[in-house]
Amino acid sequence: MYWLILIVAGLSEVLFAMCLGKAKEATGSAVYIWYFGFLVPLTISMALLVKAAQTLAIGTAYAVWTGIGAVGTVLIGIFVFKDPSSFRRLFSLPHL
User: Fold this and answer.
1) What's the pTM?
2) pLDDT of 96 over the 70 cut
3) Domain that holds residue 70
4) What total number of domains does the chain contain?
5) Residues 6+ apart with CB under 8 A from 95
């Protein structure tokens, strides 16, 4: 159960990073909507990480949470924000 909580926490981290990227592209009042969209998954992600770390070792929980966030954010950058997808970048994904 705590592993599932940790995975959802990591996916929430990807979501809040995506909202930051969208806020960067937005103009006018849409910027505030994306910033609010950033705060909600940020809060969820942190709360779930705390919950998972109550049972899992903190080093393991943090490493998995960060890994999901890092790989997920790179993939969102490539597919949503059209970041470059060079061989070097894709090759480094498993090493994050």
Assistant:
1) 0.89
2) no
3) 2-95
4) 1
5) none
